[in-house]
Write a structure and sequence with these properties.
Elements lengths: L21 H12 L3 H14 L4 H13 L3 H8 L9 H13 L3 H14 L4 H13 L3 H9 L1 H6 L2 H26 L1
Length: about 180
């Protein structure tokens, strides 16, 4: 697993980290890099309980939860991210968690926020298109992919994969509609 630059930065690089938590945050960063996500989640969960106002601990905790596939818990904790200045890695994890938890309206808000704040990041535009497709808004999803800014950010292969996903979701939706009307 690749850890994005800045994600789980050592405590010395984060002014808001409580000094007492420094060693534990550093340990959680190492655990994430070793793909020992359950252990990192446990440490970060304990830190979040001890320091609930520390946004950096919260950002790392939400990210570790998402990477560990614990989307519901990550979505619950990241519900208040909209409008905050959230690092790219944490905002992407929060948006993904909202989407995988079926909270499509919140996912859309976070993906749009990420696309605005981190215009060169493909995660937010692809995630927005996927979210719109899951919400049954297929034309809007395609519009995101066809946007010139999106074309500049997303690689052709990623655009094709997302377009395929949109088409599959639309076909599934149409098939369900046909079954209901029969």
């Amino acid at each position: 697993m690749d850890v994005e630059p800045g994600a789980f930065a050592p405590p010395a690089e984060r002014a808001e980290s409580p000094p007492a938590a420094g060693e534990l945050r550093e340990k959680s960063a190492l655990l994430v890099r070793e793909n020992r996500l359950d252990e990192a989640v446990e440490i970060l969960g304990n830190l979040h309980t001890q320091f609930p106002d520390d946004q950096q601990v919260l950002f790392d905790y939400v990210t570790a939860l998402a990477w560990a596939g614990r989307y519901k818990r990550a979505a619950d904790l990241s519900g208040g991210f909209a409008g905050l200045e959230v690092p790219e890695y944490a905002l992407a994890a929060a948006a993904q968690s909202q989407r995988h938890s079926g909270r499509l309206a919140q996912a859309e808000i976070l993906y749009r926020q990420g696309a605005a704040q981190y215009a060169r990041s493909p995660d937010f535009l692809a995630g927005l298109a996927l979210t719109l497709a899951e919400a049954g808004r297929f034309d809007e999803a395609r519009s995101v992919l066809e946007n010139a800014d999106t074309a500049a950010v997303l690689e052709a292969r990623t655009r094709e994969e997302v377009a395929g996903y949109i088409n599959n979701r639309e076909a599934e939706s149409a098939a369900k509609s046909d079954q209901i009307s029969v």
